[in-house]
Amino acid sequence: MGVWQLLAVGLVMLLGLLGVLVPGVPGAPIVWAAVLWWALTAPTTPAWAVLIGATALLLLNQALKWVLPARDLRGAGAPCRTLFLSGAAGIVGFFVVPVVGAVIGSVGTLYLLERVRLGSHGDAAASTRTVMRATGLSVLVELFACLLVVGAWICVVVLGP
Fold first, then answer.
1. Counting C-beta atoms within 10 Å of the first and last residue's C-beta, which end of the chain has fewer, N or C?
2. Is residue 157 helix, strand or coil?
3. For the chain, which ranges sit under pLDDT 70?
């Protein structure tokens, strides 16, 4: 598989990660489709292992979404821009501090943006808790699953077959 095709697969995965943050966009299926595309064009044992692992993880994620609270952006109180920036910071955090950085980046950015918007620590903390209860947990779980898939893909591509 050429460099340009790997770059295209990576861009589709990035689109899927951003799609997790936007309600109505199927982020996890986009990430899975990018892994499928890569595995079909680079049929190696590690590629198929990543595809099988991604399939299992994303199916488990879909099952978890039924258990977690539904997304209610209007009831959460925070602007959609704040939620998007918080999710984007989670993506960056995942790569800066592997795995745990996703939660730290997402929740930390949400709090900081709410602190700027509302002014006081108490109001920002209350708003952050409300947002996390209403939307954050389901978004974080889906984002974390997709980040694990992308991370596994990156490891296999960098380390090579």
1. C
2. helix
3. 23, 68-77, 99, 136, 161
